[in-house]
Design brief:
The complex is a heterodimer of chains A (132) and B (115). Chain A is mainly alpha-helical and 132 residues long. Chain A is built from five helices and no strands. The radius of gyration of chain A is 19 Å and the shape is elongated. The longest helix of chain B is centred in the N-terminal third of the chain and has 30 residues. Chain B is built from four helices and no strands. The chains are: A mainly alpha (132), B mainly alpha (115). At the A-B interface, helix 2, helix 3, helix 4 and helix 5 of A face helix 1, helix 3 and helix 4 of B.
C-alpha cells in the first residue's frame, strides 16, 4: 500500500518504527478499522433485531445474502484487524528480531486458521444447514 | 492516558476471547442441534448462582464499545485534529461514558427488556 506523503523516501525504503517496515502495516490497520466500524455495527444491530437467538432463527438469517455476505466480510476484517493489533503490541515488547518474526508468523497462522474455521462454518450454515 | 491503554487491552481481549467465541459460535451453529445446545448451555453456565459467561460476554460487549469509540477517536486524531488539551481530554472521557451507555443499551435490547 502506498504511503503517500507520510514517509520520506529514505523512510519508505528502510522501514522505520518499532515494526521496522515503515507505515504500510499502519495503513492496513486503518483500512480494516474503518470497515469494522460499519460491519460491527451491522452485526450488533442484526443480533438485536432478530426475534431471538435460537439456532433456527440464526441459521435462517445466515442463509440470506444480507446475513452471510456481511458476516463473511466481518470475519475476514475482524481476524485481520485483531492479528494486526496484536502484532503492534508484540513489536513494542519483543525486541529480538528472530523472536519478533517468529511471534508474527505464529499470530498469522492462528488468525488465518480462526478465519478459515469461521468461514467454513458460515459456508456450511449458508449452503447446507437444515432442510426447511 | 487511561483511554489509550484501554484501547490496547480491550483490543487484545476482543481478539483473543471475542474472536475465539465468534469462531466457536459459528462452528456450533454449523455442526448441528446438539453442538449448538452445548454452546448455549455453556453461555448460560452458572456457578454459585452467578452467570459467569454472561458476565464475560457483557465484559466483551463493553470492551467492544470502548474499543469502537476509542478507535473512532484515534481515526479523528490521525487526521491531525483534536490535540488541544481540553478537546482531547473531553473526547477521551466521552469514550468512557459512551461505552458504558452503549453496553447497557445493547444488553437492554438483546435481552428484550423493553418489550
Amino acid at each position: 500500500m502506498s504511503l503517500g506523503e507520510s514517509a520520506t523516501p529514505l523512510g519508505k525504503v528502510k522501514g522505520l518504527g518499532s515494526a521496522h517496515h515503515g507505515g504500510g502495516h499502519w495503513l492496513e490497520e486503518r483500512f480494516t478499522s474503518v470497515a469494522l466500524v460499519f460491519l460491527s455495527l451491522w452485526l450488533i444491530f442484526s443480533l438485536i433485531l432478530l426475534p431471538d437467538l435460537s439456532r433456527d432463527i440464526l441459521s435462517q438469517w445466515l442463509r440470506t445474502a444480507w446475513g452471510a455476505v456481511p458476516m463473511a466480510l466481518f470475519i475476514v476484517a475482524a481476524f485481520k484487524h485483531g492479528v494486526d493489533g496484536l502484532k503492534v503490541a508484540v513489536d513494542d515488547y519483543v525486541h529480538d528480531d528472530g523472536n519478533r518474526i517468529g511471534v508474527h508468523y505464529l499470530l498469522d497462522m492462528i488468525g488465518i486458521a480462526g478465519a478459515a474455521i469461521s468461514l467454513f462454518a458460515l459456508a456450511r450454515i449458508a449452503f447446507v444447514a437444515v432442510a426447511a | 492516558m487511561l483511554v489509550s491503554i484501554l484501547h490496547r487491552i480491550t483490543g487484545g481481549a476482543l481478539t483473543v476471547a471475542g474472536l475465539a467465541i465468534l469462531a466457536w459460535w459459528l462452528a456450533a451453529l454449523a455442526a448441528g442441534e446438539e453442538s449448538y445446545a452445548t454452546f448455549d448451555s455453556v453461555v448460560r453456565f452458572e456457578w454459585l448462582g452467578i452467570p459467569w459467561m454472561f458476565i464475560l460476554l457483557a465484559g466483551l460487549t463493553w470492551a467492544f464499545w470502548q474499543h469502537f469509540f476509542s478507535g473512532l477517536r484515534h481515526l479523528v486524531l490521525d487526521t491531525g485534529a483534536g490535540y488541544e488539551l481540553k478537546v482531547n481530554k473531553f473526547w477521551a472521557v466521552m469514550t468512557l461514558a459512551g461505552s458504558l451507555l452503549a453496553t447497557a443499551a445493547t444488553w437492554y435490547f438483546l435481552l428484550g427488556v423493553g418489550q
